[in-house]
Amino acid sequence: MPNRLGLSLEAFKQLIAYHFPTLKQTELPQPQRQLDPDRVDERDELIRLLLKRLDDGSNAVSDRPAPSLLSIDPQPSQQQRWMAEIIAAGCMGSDHLWQDLGLWNRAELSRLMEQNFPSLAQRNTGDMKWKRFLYKQLCEAEGIYSCRSPSCEVCVDYHACFGPEN
Prior knowledge:
The protein is an all-alpha fold and 166 residues long.
């Protein structure tokens, strides 16, 4: 993870003040680990995905994006925005998302997703690995369906997407 969890200095200070209101913030050092500038667009797309309203009103759970996938929730909470930015920064890492976020295990990441992005978490009906799931959602929103199999269960990459993460 980049310093400040991928948040801007101002957003990081707000997050610290919100969660630790009595903590006196001293001058924070400038980040040593920056996000790769070539991946800024990718990070921004992930943030938009996480902040989108995925519920089309029917509460139906589907493997396909809802028609309203392209509309951003007009009022995401500040906490959701922080979490979206942190998760997107974690997606830029090379390990499993839960590892890149510094969590103990995948179950913690699933709880984090369920608490912060419940409608998106409900779409992960097959318990796909989170980083793969998020990128799959991005691709499908763009009309890119890279899997040629009729379902995930018969795909040759099934274990890469759904297997254990140790």
